[in-house]
What does this fold into?
Amino acid sequence: MRLLRCFCIVLFLLISMENTFEAQEAETIYAVTINCGPACWLNQEWGIAVLERANQLLDDYDIALVQNDWSGAYPTILEIILYKNQTLEEIMHFIVGVDGEREAIPVKQSLRDISPILLHRFTPHIIFEQSMTVTGPTDAAVSNMIAGLTLYVANNCDVAIPFLQSVKNSLTVVSERQEVEGYLNFYLGNCAILVGDLDQASQLFQHSLETFNGEIQWNVGLSNNLAWVHLQNGHSNLAFDLMAHTLSSTSGSPNSQLLALVHRSQLYALDFRYNEAIADVDAAIALMIDKDDELRNGVYSWSSLPELYVLRGQMVMLLYEWDRVLADYNTALELDPTYADAYFYRGVLYYSVLEREQALADFEYYLELAPEGDHVAEATRYAESILAELEALDG
It folds into this structure.
């Protein structure tokens, strides 16, 4: 099942640095944008020094960070925003995240291979966000943070962990250390999943959840991964009690409520509770229709109505109710005739009910709309198989 992608408009007035870092010889290059906010106080030389040190740390792992020139030469963008809070003179705000209009950090494929339900980033759009006192982080801590999180998204958990642990231990202000641990425990928990230590993952996620208790936008993703671990450990009651609590806490935030409903629906499906999964998607669709303007304009807006109809179609397909599945896929395409994944999934449905020519048309149109999409290999195999069948029939 495709994990629905999340989108965000990050509202900052950014002053982009003009310095360009020379690309290193490396297997993987992440382009970087370093920005200062409207009350910029961190000089460019400081940012350059931090990034150069991070590159030295990454040199052994065939990864390089280069200043982004927006030329398209390096399609992956890591955004680092350093700015001074305009009301609290002593505060630095440090974000490592993704550009507001480009899906930048690659999906952590190894984590998604374990389960497409798992979230690889702390929030859909931000990897790390923290306000710290000027005297709190050292240059080394900021460089270690950048290096550690870059290694994490590059699937190098084993070498990312020491960097992330060192950052947790480097801050002397207790409140800052706790919040940093809240972020980093999420990534360390994901790394624990990758090595199969679900008990350790559970503890790390729980610590992170306790740190951000009451902050709805952070709790939803954390709860999702912790609930998934509970299911794997055979504790379904814990999983759904957690998601019920999370959902109840989102009543004042339509975007977070929508996200919680979708996550819980996927967890229900994983637990073979298909009718409850469908009921949650029904509620998400109703919420999207009712709160359309608010959801479209929300900071944490992440999805679209056509995606929800496709998700419900996928859930209903597990009940073998083909007419309902087709109706949902058709509705998605009526809402967005260019939604490539809907053509792919409808093609799979047509193929399943032996409507070969209609399936072929959908697979071919999917390949036309999304030549680099997630399902290209599958769509190509389906199309080739159908063509071979049709040729055999004609022969």
